[in-house]
């Protein structure tokens, strides 16, 4: 079953890579560029910018730091939508690497474990920043998110991340 899922992901990822040219960039893809797992260049812990969130606790106003996290591993991605929010996971990863005007774009696909559906997203790394986005057939970019590298550790009291 696992081999069958990887074959389906590989074919689907190749199809997405070929049709992704609709995002306004000219990209080339072929079957030799499809690999299992995630690329080493984008592995590690990532977080979005932090913002202070207020809430009421027993009639008193309290504050906490909120940000999304994502941990990219060799064969899967784990993440959370906020410091005290739902988490998500993507297994059986495959990726396609394309180069557009000197910029490497990693298209990752995998099986999202809660919804049990195949999902795809694009990743572009520049230094300690990672930009993720999804492309549409009409050429529009949606779900644009900027991620920042961090250690994966956070304060247990304020949830503020350590570098």
Describe the fold and architecture.
It is a single chain. This protein is mostly beta strands and 163 residues long. The chain has one domain (2-149). Helix content is 11%, strand content 48%. It is built from 1 helix and 11 strands. It has one helix at residues 2-19; strands at residues 34-36, 44-47, 51-57, 60-66, 69-72, 77-80, 87-100, 103-112, 117-126, 129-135, 141-149. The strands form 2 sheets. The protein has an 8-stranded antiparallel barrel with strand order 2-5-6-7-8-9-10-11. The chain has a two-stranded antiparallel sheet with strand order 3-4. β9 (117-126) and β10 (129-135) form a beta hairpin. The N and C termini lie far apart (40 Å). The model is unreliable at 1-5 and 11-27 (pLDDT under 50).
Q: Nutshell version of this structure?
A:
The protein has 163 residues and is mainly β. The protein has 1 helix and 11 strands, in the order H-E-E-E-E-E-E-E-E-E-E-E.
Looking at how many chains there are and whether they match, the oligomeric state comes to: single chain
- Mean of all residue-level pLDDT scores: 79
Level of helix content?
Answer: 10-25%
Please, how many domains? 1
Task: Record the strand order, biggest sheet.
Answer: 2-5-6-7-8-9-10-11
Q: Which percent band covers the strand fraction? A: over 45%
- How many DSSP E strands? 11
Compressed to H and E, one letter per element, the order equals HEEEEEEEEEEE
Distance linking N and C termini: 40 Å
Question: Any descriptors?
Answer:
eight-stranded antiparallel beta barrel; two-stranded antiparallel sheet; 11% helix; mainly beta; 163 residues
